[in-house]
Amino acid sequence: MLQTLNLTDRPFKYFTQVDSTQDIALGWLRDGAEAGSVVICDEQLKGRGRHGRTWHTPHGVALALSVILKPTLKGMGQVTMLGALAISDMLDAIGADAVSIKWPNDVRLQGRKVCGVLPEAAWDGDKLLGVALGIGVNVRVDFTGTELEQTAISIEPALGQRFDRIMLIDVLLKRIDFWSQRLGTPELFDAWKSRLDTLGQVVTVNGIHGKAEAVNRDGALLVRDDAGILHTVIAGDVMME
Ligand code: BTN
After folding, report:
1. DSSP tally for the chain: helices H, then strands E
2. What is the pLDDT of residues 173-186, one digit of tens each?
3. Does the pTM exceed 0.85?
4. How far is the CA of 6 from the centre of ligand 1 (A)?
5. Alpha-helical runs (H) found in 59-98
6. Could you give the C-alpha distances from 78 to 13, 193, 216, in angstroms and in order?
């Protein structure tokens, strides 16, 4: 299906099947890939998710791509925000409603996870070569009868219409380009923050139970526990009540 993809404006590698687009992108980064280069595939056999989890990309029913970015060290902290924002913008563009971001970077449609973002950096000693921003989007993945049935969702059943995956990739890459030019700015941070559905909620994260009060400029979540102590959470899976 994606063989017809025409990405004349950027270097890209396309595979019908690959272990993980992240592996290809990180290798390409070390070989000197330029910013904006993208690795796309139709199916992943060993897709990676956050916290060492597996990410399933069955053939032809999802978007799986890794975009190479060259942020400054200052912009590095916003790469995850960038990914979640770009996907949210893509969903807006196709008419989705109830789009939100669950801290830190799960894009949700109607309260269920529709997409995952995984940034992985490549270094040469202490020199940052760049970041492979991995993005997986459920387009028509069928979660019926799986353990994810209540928590995951795909775009097509949610919107009740068929979408061309090439069109989705095109819109997504344009929004990634847009936000890449704003890495490290208050504009990007504010846009990400305004989409968070986590703030003000009672949450449990990393064993801390309390109210998610705020996020700081580094993207950390500030949770006030039941004893009134404020915790700064840098990473973790949030459960909302
Ligand atoms: C998450 O756990 O929420 C992040 C999932 C990221 C999945 C994408 S799919 C394309 C890229 N290749 C991978 O192996 N993982 C990312």
Report:
1. 6, 12
2. 999 999 999 999 99
3. yes
4. 23
5. 73-76, 79-93
6. 25, 11, 12
